[in-house]
Each structure stands twice: as C-alpha cells, then as structure tokens.
C-alpha cells in the first residue's frame, strides 16, 4: 500500500487534436501555464509532449520543449517527465531527441508494440480546424505503435544508463507487464519500477474494473515489492478508475492527454481542474497526496538539480 498517492498530470499528449477541445494546451506558453497550475493543484509529476504552435500537431522538436521546460522548472518543484512515445509515426530518434538534450528525471516508456486506434474519435468531431487532424486520427486503423524489445533496450541504455533518467513504464495490456518482467529479470531495468497500467485505449486492455484488479494482481506476482503502481484510464473512465486505484493503494494519472472531460458531458477547462478533482476525491476518502519531494524519494529519482534545462 502506498503511504501517499502520487498524482501525475499528462498535460497535452499526442492523441487529442485542437478541434476536440478549446482548452487543450498547444503553444509552449499554454503548456507551461497549465503545467504550473496542475502542480499547484497537487500534481507531483508533470508528463509532457510538445506541439507545433501553429497548428497543434504533435512535434518532437527539442527547441519547442526548451521553450516550456525551463519555465515549468523555475515556477514549480514538480518532477518533469518527458515522453519517449512522441506522436504517431515518429521514429525512435525523433522520440528521443528532446529527452536526450533535456536529461530529465523521468521519461515515459511504452512496454510493447500495439495496435493504437484512435480513429473513432474523428467521427465525434463536427468540424476540424486543421487539415492534418482528420487523416491523423483516421489513419490509426492501419497503425502499429512500435516498441520492440530492441527499441525498449535502446531507450533504457541511452536515457536510463546514459542520463540517470528513470521511467514511467506504460503498460497497455497484460503482455506489457511480462515484457517489463523480462527486462527486470535480465537486469536491463531495476527497481523500484514505476508501472503505469493503462485502460481504455482501443488496441489495449479494456476499461473494466475486473481488468484493473487483474493487472494489479499480475504486477504483484511479477514485481513483488520492486514496483510502484499507478493507473490511468482514457476518456470517461478517468475519474472512476483513478479513484479505485487510490483506494486500493495505488497512484494516479489524470490530464488532458488522457481525457478531455471533468464529468458526464462536460469538458474540463484545464488540467488543474482534473488534478484538483482527483485530489479532492482521494483526500475525502482518507488518502494523503505526495509532494514532489516525496515522489522523488518513492521513485528514487536523481533530482531536479541534475537535469539539463
């Protein structure tokens, strides 16, 4: 059981497009502003992607990351976690470009290749602001998000061993837990593992509560006391699943990357709104929220003074 709950906030991601919500942060200034507000609301980890400020397209450009990373660091003590998943169709080198320059405390790391289908969301958009959005979404009916064993080892070698960066291991299905266990058994990674179990992405495990329990039980068997468990769920499942995870002793992730909603039929106006809601729920049922310092201790991070931004 976690003594205190770590709240991660995934601020913008590469799944949702500008036409889906006017509140999705796009520019470096918007990403920085919403990240700082999320940290003030209670998030101890901020998970970050970058976007082209002209049209909101996901971008791997380190220059864009460097427009908001220092601003967030100067205004918050939160742990900054940079994506290595990037956006649809990016190469491994593109996905690693910003992390290798920034040398962050944490990065995400997807634990297996998978069908990653977000095409159904295109049908819910009445009008697109930018030409790239509709084909970007609809093209995922024929898209495989590549994360081979070689890719995973390369990321761990270049970032983990090269920079002292630790990982948010993103597990979208049961097999991803076994992939991570394989890496642990071979000494490629070491504990404590921050295991983010993910529910509700088409191509991954479904958002059913029995699946949450099974993923947790499987992780318990595979990792014992060598892991820290966290949960995120896509869309309307976000708050229910994170509440259940917190009650069960886990940690939670919210944010506009994972869901654009704050309640049935009501879009969230900011990342901070989602952080404040899950914090309120968890505190109301007796949970305590971890500070950035406590999160660093739980996950054995190198510290914010050892990053390159």
UniProtKB/TrEMBL annotation:
An example molecular function term from Gene Ontology annotations: 3-keto-5-aminohexanoate cleavage activity
Superkingdom in the source lineage: Bacteria
Cofactor: Zn(2+)
Pfam families, sorted: BKACE
InterPro entries listed in its UniProt record: Aldolase_TIM, BKACE
Keywords: Metal-binding, Transferase, Zinc
Protein name: Uncharacterized protein (DUF849 family)
Organism, scientific name: Roseococcus suduntuyensis
Source taxonomy: Bacteria, Pseudomonadati, Pseudomonadota, Alphaproteobacteria, Acetobacterales
């Amino acid at each position: 059981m976690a003594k205190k709950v770590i709240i991660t906030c995934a601020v913008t991601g590469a799944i949702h497009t500008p036409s889906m919500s006017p509140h999705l942060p796009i520019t470096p200034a918007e990403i920085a502003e919403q990240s700082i507000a999320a940290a003030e609301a209670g998030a101890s980890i901020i998970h970050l992607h970058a976007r082209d400020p002209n049209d909101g397209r996901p971008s791997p450009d380190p220059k864009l990351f460097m427009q908001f990373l220092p601003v967030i660091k100067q205004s918050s003590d939160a742990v900054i976690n940079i994506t290595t998943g990037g956006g649809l169709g990016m190469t491994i080198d593109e996905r690693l470009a910003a992390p290798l320059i920034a040398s962050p405390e944490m990065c995400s790391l997807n634990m297996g290749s998978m069908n990653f289908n977000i095409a159904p969301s295109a049908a819910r958009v009445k009008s697109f602001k930018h030409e790239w959005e509709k084909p970007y979404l609809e093209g995922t009916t024929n898209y495989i998000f590549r994360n081979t064993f070689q890719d995973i080892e390369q990321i761990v070698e270049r970032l983990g061993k090269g920079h002292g960066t630790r990982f948010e291991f993103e597990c979208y299905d049961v097999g991803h837990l076994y992939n991570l266990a394989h890496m642990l058994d071979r000494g490629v990674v070491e504990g404590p593992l921050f295991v983010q179990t993910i529910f509700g992405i088409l191509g991954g495990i479904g958002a059913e509560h029995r699946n949450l329990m099974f993923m947790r039980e499987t992780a318990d068997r595979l990792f014992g006391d060598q892991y820290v468990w966290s949960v995120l769920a896509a869309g309307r499942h976000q708050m229910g699943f994170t509440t259940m995870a917190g009650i069960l002793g886990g940690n939670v992730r919210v944010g506009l990357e994972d869901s654009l909603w704050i309640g049935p039929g009501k879009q969230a106006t900011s990342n901070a709104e989602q952080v404040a809601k899950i914090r309120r729920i968890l505190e109301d049922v007796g949970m305590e929220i971890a500070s950035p310092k406590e999160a660093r201790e739980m996950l054995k991070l190198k510290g914010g003074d050892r990053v390159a931004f």
